[in-house]
Amino acid sequence: VNQTGAEYCFIITFVQNSNNSLNMSAKLLLFALAISVVSSCCLAYSQLDFQPMLEEHNRVFRQLAFTMNTNRAVMVGYEQSNICFDWYMGDQTAISTTYNNEYNACVNASIAAKQALSEQSALDRSELLDAGNSICSALSDCESREDSLQFFQCYYNASSDNTGVLFNISTKAERISNNLTILYKAVEDTELFCTNEARTKNILSLTESTNKLNSCLHGEWNPVSTTEATTATTTTTVEPTTAAPTTAAPETPDGDGSDSDDAQRAPEEDIFRYQPRTRMNKWNIMRRL
């Protein structure tokens, strides 16, 4: 944090000493970038590892100062530079939010796992408390004995009667403690692996974001054109058109009037072809008569 504060002081001093070379929009951009870093750091309610993000922001601050000092921003124009840094601040906020959610998810899962282990051992804990309270109660009864002989005899009898109970408390507490130590270590290792994975993902995202910013300032990449290309590639589904149904009778092609057997006609359209007597020979007709 001290290093980041020094970087902020460097940027502010640079702005104050460069009134002739920087316009008002560039100054506001520097302060907006600094505010975005502070606001992103305040997103998490747990103690997160912000060192990768701070290192990336420090590098961007140096790059921004060098860019404005050498007038490299004129290559892409101040408007394009504002577009680049507007995208960068939004992307950094999204990355910080994602890292915050993933990190806290790891921590919350660890807390829930330890709480579950405590609930599982609640019965053993209650039994040990009852055993300890019974011993304490037996020894407390000896405090009312005013005679020294009766007092020491009471302590002797109480301790002798509860020797087995004390040994049981000792062995049981040791066994449960060793078991919980192993289980807690497994939970903590899982949490460490989860947070390291989130940290690695965060570093890669920050590096990619910074590289895109550098490419944008060099005119090699434009977040606006990327958005437009994504919108242009969106496919639209065209509903197929279907002809409206009609109740008109279907048209039949005009034929030459021939009754050829090859003609494809329904039975009701050719009464002579499908009449039973037209399919008989003359001799069968005479026999029927």
From TrEMBL:
Which residue ranges does the record assign to the Protein TsetseEP domain? 81-198
Report which superkingdom the organism of origin falls in.
Answer: Eukaryota
One Pfam match, given by its short name, reads: DUF725
Comp. bias intervals (Basic and acidic residues) = 262-272
- Per the record, where are the segments of Low complexity compositional bias? 227-252
Annotated spans, Disordered: 227-274
Protein name in the entry: Protein TsetseEP domain-containing protein
Q: Where does this protein come from, organism-wise?
A: Ceratitis capitata
